[in-house]
């Protein structure tokens, strides 16, 4: 292998909300990382979150994020140096007022409201991936987003809000990343988790289950409408794998947030969205039918009815998400190249690695052929030996048969002789022979003289 | 400080054990941690007692006894840390047990679980990971001399990345109360790309005070064995049965090493002693190349001699190398590993003949590599040339012929050959045209800056002596002291000589005194080489590249030597300043290098250039990569 003289492998950072317990907080971070690493194999991904590992929670599933920390120049420099680009992928809307901030003491609020700073972002661009925008976004946010080489939102309302705030240009609306959920947790693990949840009583041991995210709904009506055995409230405090297991095990899900709805769409679980706030519907409209979404609890059976008809997410929406991640990866690669990363060299290295693998494979194959030849020769030798042994055996069998025949003939001869012998003895015992014995002896002597 | 680790204990009665375990844990675990105790519905009130009395732990109580796996699953559900450690209450941790495990996880992102070595109360090894046989039964492995990836390690004390645990789905609920669920978990981890390692630097004592009666235990084991066999039928079908291991011992090693991407056996005189010369620094670099090509490779080093084994083997074992020594019945040893190795590397002709060939008989599948280290027949040839005694000359001629034949045979035996210089590789290609011969000399890091001529003084001789008379280095230093230095000191009165090198022989020690100082072994020769003005070695015997000169060049220290010493050093036109045949010639060359600062500086720059071009670590790595590629390893 050649020794790289320039950087051929890059790094990207994810700014997540994975230190929050929400289903979407975990889901979007994990999916974004997986999709980007699929497109940038071998790259290093670092997670950041406002509090990160300083406040670990069971729901984070052991995925560790570094705390973003103070929005000071030193920390900004550290973050910018740690990767070639940062991808912002929080579930909370960007531009929310500090008073509505989900973290204590406004921790890391500035990162999501202002980005790094224009100087740092010249060499370390920020890329907002499928974000949402709060109502009336502040001017700092709009300024920060305007600096980004690639900005996407996951609902039209966010797009409108940015346009209203003066952000010009086309802002793509990308459906929820959860539509690419397939394979994030493998089927066997999901089965095991479902069994485990049943064992612990989180899910009923048997029967069909409707999962709801809100108990404000008319649960009996839901159960009756779906002819379900159980209605279960979506349990809290679980890791992503467990929550996906619950959603997959459900015969239908009534969600109250866009993330659960999107996951159900990907899993093929019929879903409806109860959205009393009027905010969750916007992203859900990018992958679901408007009929699946209701704002009033008493209309929920209509939504369920629609959900049973439109459960699966469309291939078109999935393709749109996949294309989006292609573009994010391309934007990261551009940032990498701008920082001195060598994409051409990377290709050359990959080609060289490929050649090396081919050479090694050829050597092994060559070796295998030699071994195969030796094996075949040994087998051929063995076959010859077996054939010779068979011929020997056949010969021996024939000889045995002949010997047996001879034996039989001898036996017959012996039997015949024995019979003769017995007859002769009998003859010798007759009176005629006994009494004529002296006469015959005399006759013998006379004849002999 | 935020804890990184949560201990998960499952109790069923025996609250005294839980309390003692947690107390020992606190005594020997300085890092912050969380504790979750899950009581599996103990009938004796243990759960209630723990809930009331364990103030520093989260106590969870199950309504019915669902067993170890379910208890652990529940515990992990409540854990918030990056790592979880499943700990049986009858495990007693020891001082320093945790750091090696955490360090290993930090350094190896592909490792999902690590375990210490379990010891019995008498200090003997109870389990250093276990083998899983094709019949679904497991056997504890008792050799704890080096860290390795294992099929599984007991969850009596096992640290797992929480995310890996969840990815694998956790402990399967299909199992009854206990047994086999930890085996299952680690196969599930492996299926998802996570590895499990046992780290011998960490040990704990496992008393095995199980909560189940032995009859009940047998019944549970039987039941869970059936579940395990059903769940992993495809995986088990690829493995030999544990019950066949006594009759076919080689199968145990197959099972031990089945996760390794390749298995290589390296055969040399002794465990490489990188700071003692005699070709060992290069051997060490070659062994490192085999280790670094893949972290999971099984690298076995067969040391013919046990020389300084206790001192040097541990550092190789810590790198994951299995060190084998003291083999008395070579045939039996080879057969106990029949069919195990992908590659066999024999260093030096005598090891090829005495060990490589017999061992290879039981490894017909292995690719054979002969690493010549040097062409050994050259040395008796040189003795033959220099000797005046006819009996001696005859002896050297016979020895040279024998070694030449042996080396020819070694290169022909090999599928791949490695030499230290292009000249030697050419010879190998001539005698064994079918064998690809690579050149991998010696890697050295050349600093960007080295001390210039100012402040340097005296002459240095650098080389190991093996505490043996009539070695090439002994001949060389004696010639230097007796035939070169007197003439040189006439021109440079007060010129000092320092003899640096391990194990000086009596003749060498006798040189000490006056202007001569016999320093002996030093941990790092660089300071000595950086302080001297000239390195002088009138070397008459030897083959291949002499590492001492590469060390000298990388320290920016010019040397004067003979054509034998200069072999393979790529000196080019500069040889006229550095290489002399007779002592008188050497005196002239040394004199010039001691007087002419400009020439000295010019030579120094050239030496650094040669080093960077021909003896760099990158160059060596590339050469060894080609060797591995020819062995089918990429």
Question: Could you write a compact summary of the structure shown?
Answer:
The complex is a heterodimer of chains A (449) and B (634). Chain A is of the alpha/beta class and 449 residues long. Chain A has helices at 23-39, 73-82, 109-114, 118-123, 139-146, 156-164, 187-199, 219-226, 240-249, 258-267, 281-284, 300-309, 315-338, 343-428, 431-435, 437-448, and strands at residues 11-15, 44-49, 66-67, 85-88, 126-131, 151-153, 209-212, 230-233, 252-255, 271-274, 293-294.
Plain-language structure description:
- The complex is a heterodimer of chains A (449) and B (634).
- Chain A is of the alpha/beta class.
- Chain A folds into 3 domains: 192 residues, 3-Layer(aba) Sandwich (Rossmann fold), CATH 3.40.50; 123 residues, 3-Layer(aba) Sandwich (Rossmann fold), CATH 3.40.50; 76 residues.
- Chain A has 16 helices and 11 strands.
- Chain A has a 6-stranded parallel beta sheet, sandwiched between helices. In chain A, strands 8-7-9-10-11 form a 5-stranded parallel beta sheet, with helices on both faces.
- In chain A, helix 8 links the parallel strand 7 and strand 8.
- In chain A, helix 1 crosses helix 13 and helix 7 packs across helix 9.
- With 634 residues, chain B is α/β, with parallel strands linked by helices.
- Chain B contains 24 helices and 24 strands.
- In chain B, the strands form 4 sheets. In chain B, strands 1, 2, 3, 4, 5, 6, 7, 10, 11 and 12 form a 10-stranded mixed beta sheet that branches. A 7-stranded parallel beta sheet of chain B has the order 15-14-13-16-17-18-19, with helices on both faces. In chain B, strands 22-21-20-23-24 form a 5-stranded parallel beta sheet, sandwiched between helices.
- Chain B is elongated and about 95 Å long.
- The mean pLDDT of chain B is 93.
- At the A-B interface, helix 7, helix 9 and helix 14 of A face helix 3, helix 5 and helix 24 of B.
């Amino acid at each position: 292998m050649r020794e790289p003289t320039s950087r051929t492998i890059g790094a990207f950072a994810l700014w997540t909300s994975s230190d929050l317990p929400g289903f979407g907080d975990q889901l979007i971070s994990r999916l974004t990382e997986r999709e980007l690493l699929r497109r940038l194999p071998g790259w290093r991904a670092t997670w950041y979150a406002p509090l990160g590992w300083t406040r670990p929670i069971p729901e984070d599933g052991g995925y560790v994020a570094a705390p973003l920390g103070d929005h000071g120049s030193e920390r900004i420099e550290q973050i910018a140096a740690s990767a070639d680009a940062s991808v912002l992928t929080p579930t909370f809307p960007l531009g929310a007022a500090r008073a509505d901030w989900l973290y204590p003491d406004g921790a890391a609020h500035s990162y999501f409201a202002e980005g790094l700073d224009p100087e740092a972002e010249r060499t370390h661009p920020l890329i907002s991936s499928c974000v949402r925008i709060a109502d009336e976004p502040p001017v700092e946010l709009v300024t920060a987003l305007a600096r980004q080489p690639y900005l996407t939102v996951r609902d039209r309302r966010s797009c409108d809000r940015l346009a209203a705030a003066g952000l010009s240009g086309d802002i793509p609306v990308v459906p929820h990343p959860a539509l690419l959920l397939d394979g994030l947790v493998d089927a066997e693990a999901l089965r095991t988790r479902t069994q485990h949840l049943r064992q612990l009583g989180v899910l009923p041991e048997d029967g069909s289950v409707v999962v709801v995210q809100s108990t404000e709904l008319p649960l009996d009506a839901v159960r009756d409408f779906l002819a379900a055995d159980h209605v279960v409230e979506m349990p809290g405090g679980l890791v992503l794998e467990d929550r996906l297991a619950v959603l997959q095990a459900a015969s239908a899900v009534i969600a109250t947030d866009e993330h659960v709805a999107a996951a159900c769409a990907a899993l093929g679980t019929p879903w409806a969205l109860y959205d009393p706030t009027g905010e969750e519907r916007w992203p859900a409209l990018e992958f679901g039918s408007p009929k699946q979404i209701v704002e009033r609890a008493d209309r929920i059976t209509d939504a369920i009815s629609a959900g049973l008809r439109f459960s699966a997410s469309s291939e078109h929406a999935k393709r749109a998400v996949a294309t989006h991640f292609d573009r994010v990866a391309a934007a990261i690669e551009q940032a990498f190249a701008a920082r001195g990363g060598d994409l051409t060299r990377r290709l050359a290295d990959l080609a060289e690695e490929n050649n090396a693998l081919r050479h090694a494979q050829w050597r092994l194959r060559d070796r295998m052929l030699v071994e195969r030849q030796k094996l075949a020769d040994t087998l051929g030798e063995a076959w010859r030996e077996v054939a010779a042994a068979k011929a020997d055996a056949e010969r021996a069998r024939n000889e045995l048969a002949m010997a047996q025949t001879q034996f039989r003939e001898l036996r017959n001869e012996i039997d015949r002789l024995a019979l003769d012998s017995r007859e002769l003895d009998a003859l010798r015992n007759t009176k005629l022979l006994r009494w004529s014995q002296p006469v015959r002896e005399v006759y013998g002597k006379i004849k002999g003289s | 400080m935020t804890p990184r680790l949560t201990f998960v204990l499952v109790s069923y009665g025996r609250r005294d054990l839980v309390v003692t375990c947690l107390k020992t844990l606190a005594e020997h675990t300085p890092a912050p941690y969380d504790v979750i105790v899950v009581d599996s519905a103990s009938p004796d009130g243990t759960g209630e007692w723990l809930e009331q009395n364990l103030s520093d732990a989260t106590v969870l109580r199950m309504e019915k006894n669902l067993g170890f796996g379910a208890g652990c699953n529940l515990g992990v559900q409540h854990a918030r840390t990056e790592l979880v450690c499943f700990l049986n209450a009858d495990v007693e941790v020891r001082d320093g047990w945790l750091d090696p495990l955490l360090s290993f996880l930090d350094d190896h992102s592909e490792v999902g679980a690590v375990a210490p070595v379990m010891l019995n109360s008498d200090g003997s090894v109870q389990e250093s990971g276990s083998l899983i046989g094709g019949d679904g039964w497991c056997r504890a492995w008792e050799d704890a001399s080096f860290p390795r990836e294992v099929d599984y390690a007991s969850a009596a004390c096992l640290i797992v990345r929480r995310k890996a645990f969840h990815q694998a789905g956790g402990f399967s609920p299909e199992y009854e109360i206990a047994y086999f669920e930890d085996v299952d978990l680690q196969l599930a981890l492996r299926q998802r790309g996570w590895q499990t390692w046992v780290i011998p630097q960490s040990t704990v004592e496992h008393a095995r005070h199980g909560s189940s009666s032995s009859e009940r235990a047998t019944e549970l084991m039987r039941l869970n064995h059936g579940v395990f066999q059903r769940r992993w039928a495809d995986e088990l079908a690829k493995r030999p049965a544990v019950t066949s291991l006594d009759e076919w011992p080689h199968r145990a090693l197959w099972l031990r090493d089945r996760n390794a991407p390749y298995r290589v056996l390296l055969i040399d005189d002794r465990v490489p002693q990188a700071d003692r010369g005699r070709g060992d620094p290069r051997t060490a670099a070659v062994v490192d190349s085999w280790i670094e090509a893949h972290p999971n490779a099984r690298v076995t080093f067969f040391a013919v001699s046990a020389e300084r084994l206790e001192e040097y083997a541990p550092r190789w074992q810590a790198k994951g190398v299995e060190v084998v020594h003291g083999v008395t019945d070579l045939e039996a040893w080879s057969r106990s590993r029949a069919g195990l190795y992908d590659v066999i590397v024999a260093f030096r002709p005598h090891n090829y003949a005495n060990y490589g060939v017999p061992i290879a008989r039981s490894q017909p599948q292995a690719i054979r590599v002969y690493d010549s280290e040097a062409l050994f027949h050259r040395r008796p040839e040189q003795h033959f040339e220099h000797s005046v005694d006819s009996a001696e000359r005859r002896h050297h001629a016979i020895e040279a012929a024998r070694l030449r034949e042996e080396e020819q045979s070694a290169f022909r035996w090999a599928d791949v050959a490695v030499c230290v210089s292009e000249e030697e590789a050419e010879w190998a290609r001539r005698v064994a045209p079918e064998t690809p011969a690579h050149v991998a000399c010696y890697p050295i890091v050349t600093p960007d800056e080295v001390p210039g001529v100012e402040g340097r003084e005296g002459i240095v001789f650098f080389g190991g002596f093996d505490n043996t008379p009539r070695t090439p280095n002994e001949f060389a230093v004696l010639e230097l002291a007796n035939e070169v230095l007197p003439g040189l000191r006439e021109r440079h009165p007060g010129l000092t000589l320092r003899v640096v090198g391990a194990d000086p022989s009596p003749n060498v020690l006798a040189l000490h005194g006056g202007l001569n100082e016999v320093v002996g072994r030093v941990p790092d020769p660089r300071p000595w080489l950086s302080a001297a003005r000239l390195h002088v070695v009138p070397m008459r015997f030897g083959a291949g590249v002499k590492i001492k000169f590469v060390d000298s060049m990388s320290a920016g220290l010019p040397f004067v030597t003979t054509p034998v010493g200069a072999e393979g050093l790529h000196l080019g036109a500069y040889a006229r300043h550095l290489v002399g045949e007779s002592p008188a010639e050497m005196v002239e060359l040394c004199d010039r290098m001691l007087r002419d600062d400009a020439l000295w500086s010019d030579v120094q720059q050239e030496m650094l250039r040669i080093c960077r071009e021909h003896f760099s670590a990158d160059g060596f790595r590339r050469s060894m990569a080609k060797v591995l590629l020819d062995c089918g390893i990429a």
